[in-house]
Amino acid sequence: MGKPTGFMELERTERHTALPSDRVLHYREFTLAPSDAELAEQGSRCMDCGIPFCHQGCPVNNIIPDWNDGVYQGNWQQSLEILHSTNNFPEFTGRICPAPCEAACTLYLQDQPVAIKSIECAIIDKGWEMGWVKPQIPEQRTGKRVAVIGSGPAGLACAQQLARVGHEIVVYEKNDRIGGLLRYGIPDFKMEKNHIDRRIAQMQAEGVSFRPNSHIGADISAQKILADYDAVVLAVGSEQPRDLDVEGRNDFTGVHFAMDFLRQQNKRNAGDIIAEDSAITATGKHVVVIGGGDTGSDCIGTSIRQGAASVVQLEIMPQPPEKENKSLTWPLWPNKLRTTSSHNEGIKKRYWSVNTKSVTGKEGKITHLNAVEVEWKQENGQWKMSEKPDSAFTLDADIVLIATGFVHPVHEGLLQELGVELERNNIKATDKQYRTSIDKVFAAGDGRRGQSLVVWAIREGRQAARAVDEFLMGTSELPR
Among 244, 315, 429, 437, which residue's CB has the most CB atoms within a 10 Å radius? Predict the structure, then answer.
């Protein structure tokens, strides 16, 4: 390492952000890039720890110490090559990944991990700025054709890897634009969509064809896709939302799934017009977000930008500790209280250990959400929930956003037509070969492993690409 004592001499610093009062006025990204000198200092903090646990903390096994040292030494282009060797889209992960690599950093034991995520994002942003990111066009074509169904991070990573070894790749997307969850599930204030657009342009130059507005299993027969291609990759995501099964759920307007709400705002940002009779907006309304994860946080930030009268968030689980016991958790991802930028923008209150009982309304419109506090106790190795006596309460609610996660991929249409075998309601596919129960059909991403992180989807797409290449050619030089 270039500066073995850097971690003792310099404090951790992260990217700064615009003030909440300023950033809630728009939907653009609001992080402020550090200078090259600041990033070099942060790169120098990567200690010679002997065993870089960050490698395993990162699902794509990024070679983190090497590109940290490259930034410290001023070798930005070399750092970009190292970063791209394991991650097709570091501009995505550098913005929206929760950075389990930092939790695995040795310096995390002192609450001072290397600012890995900030450095990663800076490397790829400089790569685009300097023109170092170029198409990798294969020297020869194999004549093999592969259909990738789904254009989220798993599908895009798989498609790019396969195109670079010479296969003809066609990516099918049911929505009107390419990008899947990245396009319509991630708010623009976390990741603007020009990052997707320039990757699409790069992949088109590499030979990938994109077919939006192509819903396989609905508009196009899955059997036709099987007949037309040498291999098919299912990268369909996990899109079946977990519903809110309470009294009044379907009796009043104003209760919506989070993704329907977020998708509409991203479409508005892209210039689309949302019909007034189907528009979901928080403007001037009391908003209740059910679910304490990232999607719930995204709903909070979006609601505040739309001008909500108030926003509260409910979580059925207990409030996590503010600090974890590192001797028990490190280097694994810890359960701890996480406050996002959206929480700091004006949320009225966060509720923990609360269960929704019903929603009530007037003249067909929701007006209130009724909830109760709960207690959690462990019995015979399982956590059991019980309601606290006399703890019921009511919240004003003009709109309720259900952000309680996804249970499995949508089964109707494509998966049922193919007849693929399921496991825990996800697509069953072997861990190493990613092969489904149907000949020449592979699966990768959330549709296979269940709801997860973007970085896990990229890993799955890369590994599935190697499995497909081996299937088609007998061997593969693609990395796992």
Answer: 429
Strand bridging mode 365-379 / 382-387: antiparallel
Does the pLDDT of residue 73 top 80, yes or no? yes
Q: What is the dihedral of CA 140, 145, 150, 154, to 10 degrees?
A: -50
% of the chain with per-residue pLDDT over 90: 96
- Residue 309 in tokens: 């009268």
Distance (Å, rounded) from C-alpha 91 to C-alpha 120?
8
CB < 8 Å & 24+ apart, contacts of 28-35: 28/188, 28/189, 28/192, 29/95, 29/188, 29/189, 29/190, 29/191, 29/192, 30/189, 30/341, 31/95, 33/122, 33/125, 34/118, 34/122
- The pair phi, psi for residue 158, each rounded to 5°, is -60, -45
Residue 415, CA distances (Å) to 154, 170, 355, 426 in order: 17, 19, 33, 10
Q: Which residues pair with 31 in a beta bridge?
A: 17
Is the pLDDT at 1 greater than 70, yes or no?
no
